[in-house]
Amino acid sequence: MRAAAIAGGWAYALAIVALSLAPSPPDPGFDHGDKLFHLFAYGGLMFWSCFLYRHRYTRLAYGIGWIAMGVALEFAQGATGYRSFELADMAANSLGVLLGWGISATLRR
After folding, report:
1. What does pTM read for this prediction?
2. 12 Cβ partners below 8 Å, 6+ apart?
3. Average pLDDT, the chain
């Protein structure tokens, strides 16, 4: 069961990478709605990490890694020529990581 959860989480991370670099990302239908997508996508990713890994330093490593992935993907988007680099997306990604971590910490108590 744990192996399936780990594989599912990495598939989820891969989906984020693929959607981040796709020529036409999903459209939420309202202004700046993509920021909510970023927030929830990275929040879910961090929540998954916290669900699977109990050690504080492991969670910290995943949190730093997911934030770094979000930053790197924004730079990659800017380099594609068909997507744009946005600092607000980086902020939404990072806030999502913190949100996922915070929710998991709240549920543990």
Report:
1. 0.91
2. 44, 45, 48
3. 94
